[in-house]
Specification:
Elements (H helix, E strand, L loop, with lengths): L4 E6 L5 H10 L5 E7 L3 H11 L3 E3 L2 H7 L4 E4 L6 H10 L4 E4 L6 H14 L3 E4 L6 H12 L7 E7 L4 H4 L10 H4 L1 H12 L2 E9 L10 E8 L4 E7 L13 E6 L2 E6 L3 E6 L2 E6 L13 H20 L7 H20 L3 E2 L2
Parallel strand pairs: 1-2, 1-4, 2-3, 4-5, 5-6, 7-10
Antiparallel strand pairs: 7-11, 8-9, 8-15, 9-10, 11-12, 12-13, 13-14
Bound molecules: nicotinamide-adenine-dinucleotide and (3R,4R)-3,4-dihydroxy-4-(hydroxymethyl)oxolan-2-one.
């Protein structure tokens, strides 16, 4: 049996609870939650107690220097990512950072270049492609039964009070494209390939917010496929399927539809089959968040295996730069009203 990989988690806030559960749950797959850190000592102390980490810190640098970490998982908010990632890389520690990768393209590039120059693993915790129904859709596409996809709709529409758990979202100068856009645009790349150009129409439908809460984006992919990518936190429809992403994909031989409740319908040559693609409930996951929570576990498991094997993660820094470029392009389209060509 090889030695466990010693994991340190930086940031023990709202979403990090899912990371902490996941690393604890990955003990059987060779992860050891060695240490946790938060600038708020009470949160770090509580996380260590709740998840069995041997030590807690309120200074990330002290944790990087004192613990012999094989992996650091940064689950803080975006404004802290560049500083923390560059410190972890300088300490030679394989690093995972939450989405959004960085505040702007220059910061994302600087982190990617630093990791490459140092030869240190760097990946973005982009978890939506690891959701159980998304893993299944990718498998169906890989099997080729609907043919190469030519059209898709990727849709996240909710009125769920996301601001209750994440109140900072109300004050952001860039909201839904920065917060949810990385997930939606990443799925578009995973299912239909790289993007040639895009346009974005945005709205601020909730006047209490500073920024856009609704984005409707139209993408032309290099393959010729077209996708409509929609996200809103201001939909007032029932049932509200938060936090499910609904998907429709069409190809020359059939179609895939991910419907509410993670019902997956696959039509091939005029015959439709339906299956339950829902995420399994783990001992710590709860509806309605279970799909997202299980994807955090799957993402952490993927990262652990990649570090252990010495290979890049599917959502490596290099890969996520492409998803980030789509978010930036959407903001450019919002500002100029123009179609924005990608790279
Ligand atoms: P949060 O504010 O609840 O938690 C952030 C924590 O980081 C706080 O406890 C804070 O004290 C701590 N912190 C800040 N600076 C620090 C530093 N320098 N060193 C150590 N700790 C520090 O925020 P959140 O809602 O948990 O969001 C964190 C990240 O998770 C964001 O990037 C957000 O976009 C992302 N997120 C991802 C998903 C997803 O599905 N992937 C869902 C929600 C949030
Ligand atoms: O912040 C968002 C995210 O990244 O995934 C879901 C979310 O928490 C709310 O929509």
């Amino acid at each position: 049996m090889t030695d466990p990989i010693r994991v340190g988690v930086v940031g023990c806030g709202f979403f990090a609870q899912n990371h902490l559960h996941s690393w604890k749950g990955l003990a059987g797959q060779g992860a050891e939650l060695a240490a946790v850190c938060d600038i708020d000592p009470a949160k770090a102390k509580a996380a260590a107690a709740n998840f069995g980490a041997a030590r807690w810190y309120s200074d990330p640098e002290k944790m990087f220097q004192a613990e012999k970490l094989g992996l650091v998982d940064i689950a803080t908010r975006v404004e802290t990512h560049q500083t923390l990632v560059l410190r972890a890389i300088a300490a030679g520690i394989p690093t995972i950072v939450q989405k959004p990768f960085g505040p702007d393209t220059a910061a994302c590039r600087a982190m990617t270049d630093a990791a490459q120059a140092a030869g240190v693993f760097l990946a973005v915790h982009e978890n939506f492609r690891f959701q159980a129904p998304m893993r299944r859709i990718a498998e169906v596409l890989r099997a080729g039964t609907i043919g190469e996809p030519t059209w898709a709709r990727i849709s996240f529409r909710t009125g769920y009070d996301v601001y209750k758990g994440q109140p900072y979202l109300m004050q952001e100068e860039k909201l839904i494209i920065a917060d949810l856009g990385p997930h939606m645009l990443d799925l578009a790349r995973v299912f239909l390939g790289e993007v040639q150009h895009l346009t974005a129409e945005t709205q601020r439908r909730n006047p209490k917010l500073r920024a856009e809460d609704t984005a409707t984006m139209l993408l032309r992919h290099r393959s010729g496929a077209v996708s409509a990518v929609e996200c809103t936190y201001e939909s007032r429809r029932l049932p509200d399927n938060f936090p499910e992403t609904l998907i429709e994909i069409e190809g020359p031989h059939g179609a895939i539809a991910l419907k509410p409740g993670s019902v997956l319908e696959v039509t091939v040559e005029g015959k439709m089959t339906s299956e339950d693609a829902d995420a399994p409930l783990l001992d710590w996951t709860q509806r309605p968040w279970h799909i997202v929570q299980e994807s955090v576990f799957a993402t952490c498991a993927h990262m652990l295996a990649a570090v252990r094997a010495g290979r890049e993660a599917a959502t490596s820094a290099r890969d996520n730069l492409k998803t980030f470029a789509l978010c930036e392009a959407a903001y450019e389209s919002m500002a100029t009203g123009r179609v924005v060509r990608i790279g």
